[in-house]
């Protein structure tokens, strides 16, 4: 039996691919047997890329991929291949580039028709089964492309060559090296971000949809800390406030939805992604340190509770997503009517107050129901109902808990339970930072997840991207190594343990071996030893995730103080030379690289604590102030030579050398740009030294 005689997705681990395992389309995974079949039959490949929480992916499946006549066309004329974009971001990156070049847009589901060797010649996103609202029908497109393949092959091949060359040029092109960014790179970038900010509704852009852009928020907070410019802080906090108040935040269950469909952040696209919540944790932790606002503290704590309850594997790793749909309808799990609140609330007045606070009306905001969003301030409610603000808070919390309990009776959104190394690294970073800033208990979640990924994804030499029900697969990409290494460093900061530091060093060395290209002066996104595709992409632009080349550079910069002899710092400088011109021309797209450049130019603040454990007063010293370029490390209490040998470090790594406790009292050493404090045994003295060590 040929592999094309049946749907092979039942052999896959991806929940998204398994969703299509019963389709009459004879779906193939992206593997060599499927591509060899396309070559031997001389048939084009139809590649469909999506992910489990994608609403329009579900729609196209229901309309077209379960339709027998359409399935027959796909099976007869093409080799149909399904790809989970979360498992194969390299393929998605390549063909999204073509889609954007050809159509001016992109997204999911991504629909690509290509030659057997992977050169695209027709591309789009969602297609209805028959023509609708100016969109061509999927069935007609299949017939037309099959006829073109038979009768206009020369034109098809020419187009495929042209599109592939254009795609390669964009994803592989290395800028001419230029000077490294100077010490004005951060305020220049912040000025550009202020100019692009939506000062009325918060965030960036003047229309919907609205995406969170946490890397831009982080950069603006950092620029505020350096310059004291209130405009930078205003834009950053305006975005945090808008998301905290709007419907993009789940005011019942905690955590953030993917994005808002409108300018005012009121109506979300309801899927919940691990990585959005991880990166937003960092932004809200920064906002909390800058302002001390209790609203941000609640967002942080509730988001972590959501992650622990909804996206955590029993053994410690984090699942990927929650679907936007439940019971066949987008958002059905999350929307509320006044009646829903009245039934759940302890009493009618509490229900009335909750509805006032969160805009729950009979008219509704989405098909007669409501997405909760803050529409009334606590003080105004206290005045209106003649109560103390504390009483209002208590009533709102009681209703919230009742609504959360009532929600459990609804049909839950599907959960994509694959565990991705890089996304886990982002959440480990957020939780470790929360352990320092909010509550040390959060380090337990971070440690458990790091242990899970190290045990299941790391073979001692290389990293796998995905684990699902015991199945490990797909060679890790640059973001897997970089994000996980950054999370491991954060775990070392939060715990003082050296094991996470050792893991970060192993990941950094493997990352250099697999992804660094000396001639290009950068890290590529795909490994040297990986599958050879029609293009080898880079990842230098912030999108939904921070640019992995910037995070890789940050990892090397952080580790240089431990390993000055491995050339980590030279590679960081090379990266900044490679992308220096691009950073200057388009800082909004390169926020993570801007931040890296600024850290290198001005120097990181190193805080070394010599103590058996991190004392609470020193944890509070770190928690109570926004230090975006901080590296916190605890000098091992055992003999440094023993620990250093175990980690393959120099016997006296600079960041620990000569830094011991004074008279057995926990002692801190602060350093930046070759200037260090004396031994400090009191946090108040460290506060004084911080001012002297400013860049």
Secondary-structure blueprint of this entry?
Blueprint: H1 15-19, H2 32-41, E1 45-50, H3 55-65, H4 68-77, E2 79-84, H5 89-103, E3 110-114, E4 120-124, H6 138-151, H7 153-172, H8 185-196, H9 214-227, H10 230-245, E5 259-260, E6 268-269, E7 272-273, H11 274-291, H12 294-310, E8 321-322, E9 325-326, E10 329-330, H13 338-344, H14 348-358, H15 378-385, H16 389-407, E11 415-416, E12 419-420, H17 421-437, H18 442-457, E13 464-468, E14 471-475, H19 478-495, H20 499-515, E15 516-517, E16 522-523, H21 548-559, H22 568-585, H23 591-602, E17 605-610, H24 616-623, E18 630-635, H25 640-646, E19 667-672, E20 675-676, H26 683-692
Parallel strand pairs: 1-2, 17-18
Antiparallel strand pairs: 1-3, 3-4, 5-6, 7-8, 8-11, 9-10, 12-13, 13-14, 15-16, 17-19, 19-20
Helix pairs in contact: 4-6, 5-7, 8-9, 9-10, 9-11, 9-23, 11-12, 11-17, 13-14, 14-16, 15-16, 17-18, 17-19, 18-19, 19-20, 19-21, 20-21, 21-22, 21-23, 22-23
